[in-house]
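The data are passed on as follows:
___
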Amino acid sequence: MINEQKIPCPVCKTQIPFDVSLLLQGAKFSCPKCQSVVAISNNSMTQAEEAVKQYEKLKQSSKKQKDTRR
């Protein structure tokens, strides 16, 4: 996975690796220990996409601030 992140399994708390871009495309990720599945519901997809956009804007803003300090 290119942009691998981890989230605790809601059942057993084992770290589940996932890729945000794949998650936003509807992919499901399984816990390596208990096989519980993590995914974004269709009802939450728009909200999740907006949150990722806002995060990316903050990241870019932070990078610009660091670049101007140099």
Observations:
- The mean pLDDT is 89.
- The CA atoms of residues 16 and 70 lie 37 Å apart.
